[in-house]
Predict the structure of Amidase.
Amino acid sequence: MLPVVPLDPTAPQRRRAYDPRHPLLLPFVPRANDIAAGRTTPRDLLEQAIARIDADEPAIRAFVCHDLAAARHASDAATARWRAGQPLSPVDGMPIVVKDMIATAGLPTQMNSPIFEGWDARVDAACVFALREAGAVVLGKTVTTEFACGNSGPTRNPYDTARTPGGSSSGSSAAVGAGMAALGFGTQTHGSTIRPAGYCGAYALKPTHGALHVGGLAPLAATLDHLGLIGASLEDVWAAGMAISRIVGGTPPHPGMAGPQTAPSPRRPATLVRLDTLGWAETPPASRDAFENAVARLGAAGVRILDADSDAEVAALEVELSGIGDFANDLLAWEARWPLAAYRAQGEDMVGARIHDLLARAARVDRAAYARALADRQRLRDRVAGFAGRANGFVMLCSSGPAIADHGFTGSRNYALPWTLVGAPAFALPLLVADDLPLGLQVAGFAERDAEACAIAGWVRDTLLTDNA
């Protein structure tokens, strides 16, 4: 079996205390007024990102490759458009990075696998094409786990290099969290956008399933795969998502994410459902305390909080969530038989242990078991949809604690998995702290109501950051 490549022991080490009021992030869309007024330019912001790459990449190892000359050329063109008062979109000039599972013209797409070493897809995936059309500036490709489900790469957490950045969107989350880019493409099949964003102190959007086009993403499990966006602000992930939706739409037949071009105004929800999920039992006391405190502050700000202790329907949902692991893994294993079996056919020593394990599970899942898993997921979706008349959204953690001190294992997916299965929008907000490290808060909504979930996430962000001031 292909082994996990060990971390370079000579790479620089660092640990920085996390403060959600003063993160390392490099927002772009929130600087639009400054750019339009000439107080800064896309080239200025790109140079800030490159300076951070020069300083921090030796320790963090977020990139597979980059082309800074091409990025500077594209950034200069965006700067000229802004000076002329004719930007292509709110993301014109935004420095972005692309997870190395996503086809990118002119840069190799290698998927952390020797099978694809040096492979050039020659054309852009739908999402990369769309953001280039909208003026975004591609800095380079970022590290992923093997085929987004297997061996880890060399990337380290930007706040503690002894810890994982999460997976599989490890490089994009670390790059954005460290201020090396304003936006990174990720994917999520179980927990690969929401969890690493929370670990690395970044914002993220996992949209309604199909609302952002997945053409050109290396497939894993068709009914689970989401395109994810990891960004330096809520405004960045929303504007990027809407640019993609406007230019290429969603994955057919989905017409694409609906809403305004820039992030909707923050809106206080009347009622939120607090969920512990199957992750609560593995969540350490400091992280539990941070979450409890955040929920209490939302309640003090006028939001009615429903939880399992106060509401029978929430209690029933929590019971259902506690049993999702088996059927979620059956769905993944069945749907990922191809391409994983095709990769293994290149040689059993060309793929890692996790891929062998998934294929072994797939061999035990028959048509009846897959049908039961689909029915179990639909029952969960129906139960969540039943809250639409009683609540405005859901709040839970992004992960069971801050990033773990591990390299081969990227952490539990138990908090991110539920809304992957539900197929509805979820946002990661880097608002909490545990053990001086980032702890993401997840705000989730109802399917096809991404804009409403974004407005609620904006209010939660503003409320908790103001409360922390």
Remarks:
- The mean pLDDT is 97.
- The chain has 15 helices and eleven strands.
- The longest strand covers residues 426-434.
- The radius of gyration is 21 Å.
